[in-house]
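Re: [ENG-882] Designed sequences occasionally contain unexpected residues at chain ends

Forwarding the minimal case from QA. Structure tokens:
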């Protein structure tokens, strides 16, 4: 579904991604692991056209999108749950969810999506009229994920969904990611919590200083010496 091939990305004169290649197949959960400043968020920004490539290509469902506007990318079913959640703090839960569906015109489909989100996240239903900025970090993460699902994505990209959450909430988030996949949505996951990410993923990549240094099945990466030393404390 998603393919980055030989991607170089810069901020001004500084190169951040060096010939990055990643594949995400339909129905998979694929994770991209890396420490702070490894280039994970830049990879996400490059996929969504927020940063343009200097070399290489990004394709989605067989068509290049590296020169496509962000809104057109989203309209094709590729959606982002951004780092640090980025909810609209002065809007209610329902209003945030409706913003996720802003490109849809079918009111019945929007209502159906809302019910599906409330089924997946009952806490959001309980707080439907609450301002998003008054919610806990875990609740805001649920809202960010629910807002993305309102766009009816075929592939959802998540940038550090466990950031700043308690261990119990981290488990909840990753359980939800598995449930999202069961509903037919492919997942590309950028994450520092290597243990949790590899336990839900099918395959993974390791990014260091803007370069892919490892790619393998999640099971093999869990036992890889480099991964264990760098990310699993082993």
């Amino acid at each position: 579904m998603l393919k980055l091939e030989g991607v170089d990305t810069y901020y001004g004169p500084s190169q951040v991604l060096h010939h990055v290649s990643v594949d995400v197949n339909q129905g998979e959960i694929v994770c991209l692991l890396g420490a702070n400043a490894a280039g994970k968020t830049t990879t996400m920004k490059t996929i969504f056209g927020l940063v343009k490539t200097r070399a290489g290509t990004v394709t989605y469902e067989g068509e290049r999108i590296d020169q496509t506007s962000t809104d057109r990318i989203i309209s094709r079913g590729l959606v982002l749950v951004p780092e640090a959640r980025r909810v609209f703090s002065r809007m209610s839960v329902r209003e945030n969810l409706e913003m996720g569906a802003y490109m849809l015109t079918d009111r019945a489909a929007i209502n159906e999506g809302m019910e599906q989100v409330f089924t997946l996240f009952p806490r959001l239903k309980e707080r439907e009229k609450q301002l998003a900025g008054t919610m806990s970090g875990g609740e805001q993460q649920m809202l960010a994920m629910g807002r993305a699902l309102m766009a009816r994505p075929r592939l959802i990209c998540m940038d550090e969904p466990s950031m700043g959450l308690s261990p119990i909430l981290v488990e909840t988030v990753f359980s939800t990611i598995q449930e999202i996949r069961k509903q037919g949505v492919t997942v590309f996951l950028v994450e520092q919590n290597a243990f949790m990410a590899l336990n839900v993923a099918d395959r993974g990549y390791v990014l260091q200083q803007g370069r892919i240094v490892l790619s393998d099945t999640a099971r093999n990466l869990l036992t890889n010496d480099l991964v264990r030393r760098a990310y699993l404390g082993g």
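QA comment: On inspection the terminal residues look reasonable. The first helix runs from residue 40 to 47. Proposing we downgrade this to a documentation issue.
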